[in-house]
Amino acid sequence: MIRFDDVSKTYEGQRRAALSNVDLEIDKGEFVFLVGQSGSGKSTFLRLVLREYRPSRGRVFVAGRELNRLHNWKIPGLRRQIGTVFQDFRLLPGKTVYENVAFALQVIGKPRREIRQVVPETLELVGLDGKGDRLPEELSGGEQQRVAVARAFVNRPRILIADEPTGNLDPATSVGIMKLLDRINRTGTTVVMATHDSTIVDQMRKRVVQLVDGRVVRDQARGVYGQQ
Amino acid sequence: MRHIFSETWSGLRRHISMVVAVVVTAFVSLTLFGAGLLVYQYADALKGNWYDRVEISVFLCTEATLGDNCTPGAGVTDAERSLIEETLTTNPEVASVEFETKEEAYREFQEAFEGSPIQDSLTVEQMQESFRVKLVDPQQFEGVVSSVAGLPGVQAVQDMREILRPLINALQAAQVAALVTSGLLLLAAALQIGNTIRMAAVARRREIGIMRLVGASYAYIMAPFLLESLIAGVLGVVLACGTIAGLVAWLTQNPQLSIQAGGWIGWQEAGIAMAGVAAVGIVLSIVPTLIATRRYLRV
Fold first, then answer.
1. How far apart are CA B25 and CA B284, in angstroms?
2. Of A51, A85, B127, B173, which sits most exposed with the smallest number of CB within 10 A?
């Protein structure tokens, strides 16, 4: 589903590479933790998957497309196959929970009938049924992140990318979000999650890829956060 | 589609004062641009009118005249006169040639200075014969002038363009000034539209970020901004065209003014000016929008 072939990325005006010589393959339906300190290259990895940047060297394949060769006008098509969740939720403050989730479908031109059917289903899936009329500010952090997950998943993407999704949440709430991501993973969606949270990684026992200074130093099935 | 229109509408409402400012700027600059186009056409018509009357006068020698090609004490001979006439009539640049006799010149002189003390100061014999030459293209006078200026019997060649030159220069300056002034105003309007749209893009950057993330197409993200500036631009165009139409209606209906502008500024010219205003108005609203939003829509 995602393949990196000897990928390096150096940002303009910087000497040190954000990623160097990364070779990695993530299969369909996998759940992968991307761990490492701030600046180790986790976000760069995710941004290359989203084709927010092109790699400086090497090739990136996502959902059967080679992103180096992807025309700009085809990027929206790629992103419709990828759901994204961030640490800071990124909800629209003026819109209700329902509208926030529906927004993701409206802007890619889905018919209204489909939106009216899919959005309540997804809200139920993430455990927010009955809260569709609330505004984001009326919700707890955990609930807001659930809205963000619903928005990322409402179009049933093949890949879900989560960048520190529990970074702003307390441990108990984080567990809830992780259960949700796990449930989404079980539907066949590939999940890639960058995180600092050792407790979560240790509990989940999923594949762990560790980055240090832009290099993959560990790739372990059913791994834990720290070195063993 | 519904979503694009509702986004456009809410965008227009959200910063209504900015939109009004854009419409007013577009309106004023487009009106002046249209007026500039009218002035330009008026000046062109005026120039054409003058050029139609422009002629070259070839004055012939008399016994009393001095000149490089005159024989002192003798006037132009018949042979010389017919050579000059033939030279003129065979020149392809010449449209028509008329000969003015001494008697005709004298009569004209008498009429021009009727009642003046110098009316009787000249006799028929002292008047000069001349050829009055009209040109096919009034701009191309040098060739005709030089072809006869050196012929024996020609005392002087006078080109009326020389007399009209300061007037024509002033008209051309007015044309340039009208276009430059309205060009500067249009530039200011373009910058203002660009800034307004940029602010609208900044205000919506959360939405834009999410739209890009979930895979909305560029056209979709762009559409509300383009529509918004297009609506403002079209309003400006409509107001400007209305003003120009009103101005032309007033000019053509006011009898005193219509003598001045006599037939040179009419609905045809107004139509050209309005078409120009519409074309420039559309470009004025779309191009700055594309430039201003490019940064925010970059992949």
1. 11
2. B173
